[in-house]
Amino acid sequence: MKSKVNTFTWTIGGAAGDGIMVTGAMLAKYCTRAGLWTTDYAEYPSLIRGGHNVQVVQVDEEQIFEHDQGTEILVAINEETVRLHAASLSPGGALVYDSTRLTINPAMIGDRTDIVLVPVPLMDLALKNGGKDLMRNTVALGATLALLQAPRKLMDDIFQDTFGAKGQKVVDINVATCRAGYEHVQKLVKDFPWRIVPKENDQRMVIGGNDALSLGFIHGGLKFYAAYPMTPASSILISLAELAPTYKHITKHAEDEIAAVNLAIGASFAGVRAACGTSGGGFCLMTEGLGMAAITETPLVIVDAQRPGPATGLPTWTEQGDLRFVMHAGQGEFPRVIVAPADPTQAFQEAARSLHIAEHGQLPVIILTDKYLAESHWSTPMFDLTKLRVQRGGFVTAQEHGGGPWYQRYADTVTGITPRPIPGQSGGVFIANSDEHDAVGHANEESDNRVMQYRKRERKLEAVLSFLPPRLVHYGPDDADVTFVTWGSVTQSCKEAMRKLATMGIRANVLQVLYLLPFPVAEVQQFFRAAKKTILVENNGTAQLGGVLKEYADVTCNHQLLKNDGRPFWAEDIAAFAKGHM
Amino acid sequence: MKSKVNTFTWTIGGAAGDGIMVTGAMLAKYCTRAGLWTTDYAEYPSLIRGGHNVQVVQVDEEQIFEHDQGTEILVAINEETVRLHAASLSPGGALVYDSTRLTINPAMIGDRTDIVLVPVPLMDLALKNGGKDLMRNTVALGATLALLQAPRKLMDDIFQDTFGAKGQKVVDINVATCRAGYEHVQKLVKDFPWRIVPKENDQRMVIGGNDALSLGFIHGGLKFYAAYPMTPASSILISLAELAPTYKHITKHAEDEIAAVNLAIGASFAGVRAACGTSGGGFCLMTEGLGMAAITETPLVIVDAQRPGPATGLPTWTEQGDLRFVMHAGQGEFPRVIVAPADPTQAFQEAARSLHIAEHGQLPVIILTDKYLAESHWSTPMFDLTKLRVQRGGFVTAQEHGGGPWYQRYADTVTGITPRPIPGQSGGVFIANSDEHDAVGHANEESDNRVMQYRKRERKLEAVLSFLPPRLVHYGPDDADVTFVTWGSVTQSCKEAMRKLATMGIRANVLQVLYLLPFPVAEVQQFFRAAKKTILVENNGTAQLGGVLKEYADVTCNHQLLKNDGRPFWAEDIAAFAKGHM
Amino acid sequence: MQRPVKNPDFNSPHYPTWCPGCGDFGIWTALKNAMAELGWQPSDVLIVYGIGCSGNMANFVRTYGFHGLHGRALPVAIGAKLANKDLKIIVIGGDGDGYGEGGNHFLHALRGNVDITYIVHDNQVYGLTKGQMAPTTERGQKTSSTPEGVIDQPLNPVALAIAAGGSFVAQGFAGDTGQLTQLIKAAVDHPGFAHLNVLQPCVTFNQHNTYSWFYDRVYNLDGTGHDFSNKQEAFARALEWGEKIPTGILYREIRDTYEQDVPEMRTESLVKERLDNIDISGTLKQYT
Amino acid sequence: MQRPVKNPDFNSPHYPTWCPGCGDFGIWTALKNAMAELGWQPSDVLIVYGIGCSGNMANFVRTYGFHGLHGRALPVAIGAKLANKDLKIIVIGGDGDGYGEGGNHFLHALRGNVDITYIVHDNQVYGLTKGQMAPTTERGQKTSSTPEGVIDQPLNPVALAIAAGGSFVAQGFAGDTGQLTQLIKAAVDHPGFAHLNVLQPCVTFNQHNTYSWFYDRVYNLDGTGHDFSNKQEAFARALEWGEKIPTGILYREIRDTYEQDVPEMRTESLVKERLDNIDISGTLKQYT
Ligand SMILES: Cc1ncc(C[n+]2csc(CCOP(=O)(O)OP(=O)(O)O)c2C)c(N)n1
Ligand SMILES: Cc1ncc(C[n+]2csc(CCOP(=O)(O)OP(=O)(O)O)c2C)c(N)n1
Ligand code: SF4
Ligand code: SF4
Ligand SMILES: [Mg+2]
Ligand SMILES: [Mg+2]
């Protein structure tokens, strides 16, 4: 049984175009400023209008990783929300609905009598208080805070910080519409059992995977980002474009993904840190470029924000279906690094680090995320900006460069890494060649040269190890009875399941494979030797990590739990599965 | 020690543009008509002119699979050939060279005295007998036949059959230039130990992988082929284009590979058997289309003729670097069939079959070849045209179709395969949708529907098993002391190695994984249980099949022999490796 | 004999999910009207759709349909036409879809002249992905992917189509479904590749090129004495964008369709070919 | 001060492997001449090459080079220019490479107007892959991929470039290295994207568009009174192909380059930016 102070789930539903997403973000910010932890998640179809949108915000005093299936407050902007989600209300929970547009009858709520109906004329109050129709969401926010008996002042500060730049008028309208909802509900409901009691705490952010990743890129010295919009990667382009004037980098919305990857390679070749990003469909078009980055030894970072495939698939949903694809994408054989962050902090750190790895290792790095991580948000401790500061590397100085005529840019070296001049730098020149080439880059088809160059490239994977953090991340107690083995955003669900199991008295822990390539064979084997019972959890249908574990480390998990319907896991389901297999 | 009758290696070398390839083809045809077995192999750089080209023809009384390292006759059109290849001449072998252009000094041939120098004024004789300069190759052919004391008449017949359509004049010039070379050498060398003694035998062809594959497509009912030229796949497009008027299919040289795959999908959707082909770089651009064929359940065959990567790599050389790539190409998870023929007969059969599998299984089939198979030729028994004749399937008849308004083209079925109407057919309509969809093809994002459609697609892989031949092919004795485990064209090298080991008294056999997906797990495991010692042989650097064997079947070979310098294996090296590990 | 069809016969059970007021509604209406006026049955026609708000029309029209990849509708349609030349084929795409991601196919389809109709919803923005720059977005416009304003000069689809060898190039406006219906019919009737660029207000993400913006500018070429057989004149008209924007047929040229010039397509459709009597033994002989 | 450079200073140790008589030799010569006349040092310039006989030039010229993927030279070059606007960048490609595989990049580069020079070896055939149809191959030509003759209407690169918004569109001929040298210099001097289509005889695979075929047809626009600032006139000239084929500058328009309009590029090149003082704490605050 949940505590009723500072622990609840809040859900809002409406049509696409109703603008509900912003509301959840505001509530999450509120709770985070109130010293609590939040996570939120949104579902929406690949339509601009008409489809059903829903957003869930989970709040807790402890750090949480995933939202629950049930909800304590449901805000219904339209009737469909009531029909679809009323059943998920906890006993005693509240249904806040727009009484300007809706009348609730018992059938709509499955004849439930154990919930509180909270009619609020959302639209009326919005319009009356100077807002446009989308401001009904702000009324709902006020209503929510009133239910939770939470101080309004904290919200007003947020309005000030968020809209201050747009002028006092905008702030005032927000404050007024929020207050209208607040006061309306204060009169209506007095003793709602769930409450917010603000706490003192360290400053935290509410941030999503894509924004964290974008900021990681900037912190890591990104100067060039090329992309073609594709859900769920689009917002990286958009955030970076917005921040371009501040941090003086360039974003380029390219004509297609082929251009995007080649643009990034060109910029990187010219000497800046560069990346590109897309989802699986666009990644298909980048695979040839990936190989070119490898053979020309040009640093490159590619983000693949996964969504369910094949083809257009389920554009606005989540899946981990591309692991094997990105591991093997591109003709021929060449080294690459693959990292799959699980949460905003990792997204930030690994994005920053990816630029370092790519530049120093002169090879492609792929950051594998998914819609769940990309577009959900979590209360997150402030990023440590003293870490992962830019250190350039892999360049030849003007002195070392030599007068030419040629520079041996692809000469063999112990590490496989050969320093490169910036094109335009006075001295010997070289050719970056997508053909197999000799030391200065001229096409060369000799057997010995080919083998040398292949080995030089492969060898860099060892050198790169020194730039990597531990490739496995463990969460929870060492001596657990059950271990969840997973990767990417599913780690969040597993961590939440671990929390849930702890309350049932089951000791669980989580093993996240953070770096998929170079695969941490020895570390995995060591971990598996110690683990009592392992459960593989993946958001796909074919257990791709499972196959990799077998192929590389010769280990197999005792059980596996897969899901590939476009939805992230429910921590409850993972916990129940584990319990059922104890 | 080789027998000297009907067993020899012949090598010719010249610059790109010297037109040497045709000569080897003629010699192979000659020997095959003479009742012998041949195989030939060519090396040439990615240049139109100037680079060094070499072609080897191997001849034997028994069926052979690969050429040897040494040669008995070397025809040198230019000096570079002498410098590069004289060392490979067997003691007693002959160096035929163009005395119009070359003078041989001892240094050029490494001071060898154990070889016969055969100066022939190739160019002079060509011009004198009415030919242009490229006809010097025909003079060389005559010289070769004279050395081997082989009847000229058989060659004259070949000229007649090959050039008859171009007019008697062309035939006559060929006959005359060939005779000139013949008579010149007849006077010069009398007792060359290697000889051709024609035998009676079944009719055989000399055919390469690409031509065999193209003919398999035609036999299998191909009506549409789209491609963008890329070595070593280009000649499929060219052969099919040449044969279009005869067999009434269409070939389309598309603007790029993305167009090629989408054109093939469109044609297939419209109801004809369709394919496209490329090498790895172009395959990159087809990967998104691959997934679309899968989700729309449109039959599709793609040929990936591998060459060494990454990127442009070594365009005219050979490698097996794309196995894992084609296994996992495309975002998301979907079923596909992958077949890797080893020789022209398999290329023919599996090309024909691929169209059957794709059409009946309504899924994509990938044919994985490589430059060695695609562009080398082997004496090959006549294809059995009574087998693999077209049987259409997977369509709904006009009666079954129903009047509409909608046809449930994606309704779930036991096998996962749902019959489809040809668009334009009167009756209920449907949408082929790259979005996840419901039974009539409308976009559908529901969880249950997604899972149902995913499973329906995956289930087809089981249904498809009934269309497949045995997925493993064994060669040699059952109770061998050593087994080569391999795939694709390397099978040829392994078979040749097996022949060589037999002469050393070592019993070897070969296991070819013909179908890589669906992977024959049980068959592989059974085979490995019986095998004494296994050696994995792959033409790549990372043992990709080895990884697949481990992942899918949990088996590991005792040893592995890899090569990735762009050259095919030498059977001698494989045999020696095996011997060294006995 | 099948009964005559009307616009609603082409409706699917799903009512469009476009934003109220979206120009896509006008194109949807005109398309169905045109098909009805042409007397087509739903099963006579294949519509190939790209990915975008435009392509979402796949769910709202009842005919055979193929909802392909973003940017790749054209080659699917061309492949289908080459396989079955008797099939009526229309392609629906977006400006991002067709001129951005799919620009290369557009370029080459114009030269190829396969007999299909290509209707592009030119809303000068990426609708479905929520408002990024499209190839036709005007310079200086602020979009989510170009918050500091678009730098590239906009692509002029009709001028490009004329220069690239298009045999039928027309422009319609989603706000004039009457004219648009007639243009679709003319495009369909044209023997060869017909390109119809439709000016389509996106009420959600393009606040610049609105209905009223267009109403102030569009004029019908029909009646102006425009000679659409004159390439120079057509090009001059095509360049008009600003005060005046032409609609109607800009350029038309009757030349062989691709199908007419493929020897293998001269007789019946490939899809009707028998496959049970193939005999390659003649070709095999050449290898002996 | 560096010493003055001459054509041979741009030679690599590898002498070209093109077929004797190939038009690529003329372009190679003109390119080196132009760079020498411009006073460039080999290390001042980046040449980005596509894949083809044309792109093989990567092995024969001494400057910084990037030999990219088939069809993808342009985006690499544009990326490099945006990263380092001080770098002089020339792109060398083939007609298959640039107008076929890479057509979409060409289309959008013209609009974007990044300040680079694009030289296309237009030999109307695929040379390196041995003689298949190119987008510029004339109708009816028999090539290995079209043994029954090309059906598609050939692409007219210069007409297309003008229509797509190119700010500098010129045509040269590999048989006139003098003029070609001057055209390359003019293209390089043009502020913005300069497109130079070079008519290039392929002596091995194109027996139709030979040197003499061109000598009979090409004429220099310079001196004809052609007004290259007039788009209509330029378009009319661009369409000429047959009896007369124009060489010289067809169209030129001075407008902002892409670089000039990117606020982040107004000061120094990105590649010169310091990276050790990045501080995102201000942005982080907005998330609290
Ligand atoms: C390969 C690929 N890249 C990107 C996307 C994402 N995407 C879907 S629709 C769209 C753009 C839509 O714009 P437009 O084509 O103009 O159509 P509209 O929505 O405006 O009608 C994009 C970028 C995709 N589905 N596939
Ligand atoms: C993705 C990809 N597709 C195809 C090829 C094969 N290929 C190499 S060069 C070439 C065409 C060359 O023609 P063009 O660009 O006109 O150059 P040219 O040789 O005539 O100078 C092709 C198709 C490739 N390297 N990569
Ligand atoms: S976003 Fe624009 S194009 Fe898309 S449905 Fe809405 S108004 Fe129409
Ligand atoms: S094939 Fe043609 S383009 Fe290539 S080098 Fe020879 S002549 Fe030149
Ligand atoms: Mg659009
Ligand atoms: Mg060319």
Spatial shape of chain C: globular
User: Overall mean pLDDT score of chain A?
Assistant: 96
Number of helices of chain C: 10
Helix content of chain C: 25-40%
Kindly state the number of beta strands of chain C.
Answer: 8
What key phrases describe this protein's structure?
heterotetramer, A: 582 residues, alpha/beta, 8-stranded mixed sheet, 19 helices, C: 288 residues, 29% helix, 16% strand, binds thiamine diphosphate, binds iron/sulfur cluster, binds magnesium ion
3D structure, described in words:
The complex is a heterotetramer, with two copies of chain A (582 residues) and two copies of chain C (288 residues). Chain A has 582 residues and is of the alpha/beta class. Helices cover 38% and strands 20% of the residues of chain A. Chain A has an eight-stranded mixed beta sheet with strand order 6-5-4-1-3-2-14-7, sandwiched between helices. In chain A, helix 3 crosses helix 4 and helix 7 runs parallel beside helix 12. Chain A starts with 7 loop residues before the first strand and ends with a helix. Chain C has an eight-stranded mixed beta sheet, with helices on both faces. Chain C starts with 23 loop residues before the first helix and ends with a helix. Chains in contact: A-B, A-C, A-D, B-C, B-D, C-D. The interface between C and D is medium-sized, with 33 and 33 residues. The structure holds thiamine diphosphate (2 copies), iron/sulfur cluster (2 copies) and magnesium ion (2 copies). One thiamine diphosphate sits at the interface of chains D and B. One thiamine diphosphate sits at the interface of chains C and A.
